[in-house]
């Protein structure tokens, strides 16, 4: 079995990995496509090693790749052999998706939208699910909510814009140059160049979702309405500000998708099937060209997800 292995912060392609054996509550899945995202690049750099250890993660030979699309090889309780599914894995613990076969709990997957290809479906699950949880569950976005999305052209932002609009929000998107037409087409009401400092904005927002992972609460608190919420995609950069939640109306929300949620994935699949939610694929690479895929993650101008074809 082919897959990527991480040895001393260096990824390499191997063809002698053992075929995983599913537990009673797991599916055996042939991975067709998998994404590469900034979390994978951070993993290679060793940025999550201490956190993973503190959370009890066991080291796995293959440990990059979070999203995938594939075909069920061994039936489970809800999914049968031959089903085309898409899903995600735990961000820090357990097996990852950059290999030809994985074993995965059924709670972490849903049936693919019939209208989408494997590469399109692989680009959706974690980005769309994280956006949905941030906006609906944490941000309580509803019709008329004013939402600012910073870092709106990346793998999460392209779904956050669409889902915020589905929930009835007015969306201001902050992204790089030459993205206005692209983001407006996804549903953004206003598009602002990221070179304009956020502190210079005049509007107030019910929710600010920072997907750049660079913004800290003191930099944007003046932009929040009285009971506004700030959701950083990387909560660890804002840990001191969670403490103050008990003493102010404006809240800093903790965003981390750790558990499986097949129900929400199924909703996302239905939106995509109805044309209400569109996948955004930046680029597709072969497994042999995985290094190029990882380099693309660090390049400017990326729109949506970078995808690797794992199997023929």
From TrEMBL:
GO molecular function per UniProt: oxidoreductase activity
SUPFAM superfamilies: GroES-like, NAD(P)-binding Rossmann-fold domains
Classification via Pfam families: ADH_N, ADH_zinc_N_2
Gene3D superfamilies: Medium-chain alcohol dehydrogenases, catalytic domain, NAD(P)-binding Rossmann-like Domain
Domain of life from the UniProt record: Bacteria
InterPro entries: ADH-like_N (IPR013154), ER (IPR020843), GroES-like_sf (IPR011032), NAD(P)-bd_dom_sf (IPR036291), YIM1/Zinc_Alcohol_DH_Fams (IPR050700)
Domain Enoyl reductase (ER): from-to ranges: 3-308
Protein name in UniProt: Oxidoreductase, zinc-binding, putative
């Amino acid at each position: 079995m082919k897959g990527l292995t991480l040895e001393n912060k260096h990824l390499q392609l191997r063809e002698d990995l053992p075929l995983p054996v599913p537990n009673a509550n797991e599916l055996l899945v042939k991975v067709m496509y998998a994404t590469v995202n900034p979390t994978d690049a951070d993993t290679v750099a060793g940025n999550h090693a201490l956190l993973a250890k503190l959370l009890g993660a066991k080291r796995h030979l293959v440990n990059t790749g979070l999203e995938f699309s594939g075909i069920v090889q061994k039936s489970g309780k809800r999914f049968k052999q031959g089903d085309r599914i898409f899903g995600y894995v735990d961000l820090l613990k357990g097996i990852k998706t950059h290999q030809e076969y994985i074993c995965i709990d059924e709670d972490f997957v849903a049936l693919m939208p019939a209208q989408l290809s494997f590469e399109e479906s692989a680009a959706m699950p974690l980005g769309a699910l994280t956006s949905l949880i941030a906006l609906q569950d944490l941000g309580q976005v509803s019709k008329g909510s004013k939402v600012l999305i910073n870092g709106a052209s990346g793998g999460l932002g392209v779904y956050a814009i669409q889902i915020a609009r589905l929930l009835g929000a007015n969306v201001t998107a902050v992204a790089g140059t030459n993205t206005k037409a692209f983001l407006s087409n996804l549903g953004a009401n206003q598009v602002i160049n990221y070179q304009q400092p956020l502190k210079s904005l005049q509007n107030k927002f019910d929710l600010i979702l920072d997907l750049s992972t660079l913004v800290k609460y003191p930099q944007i608190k003046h932009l929040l309405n009285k009971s506004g919420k700030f959701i950083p995609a990387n909560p660890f950069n804002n840990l001191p500000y969670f403490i103050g939640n008990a003493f102010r109306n404006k809240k800093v929300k903790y965003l981390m998708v750790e558990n499986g949620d097949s129900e929400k994935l199924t909703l996302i699949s239905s939106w995509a099937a109805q044309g209400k939610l569109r996948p955004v694929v930046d680029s597709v690479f072969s497994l042999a060209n995985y290094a190029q895929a990882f380099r693309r993650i660090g390049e400017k101008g990326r729109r949506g997800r970078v995808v690797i074809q794992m199997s023929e």
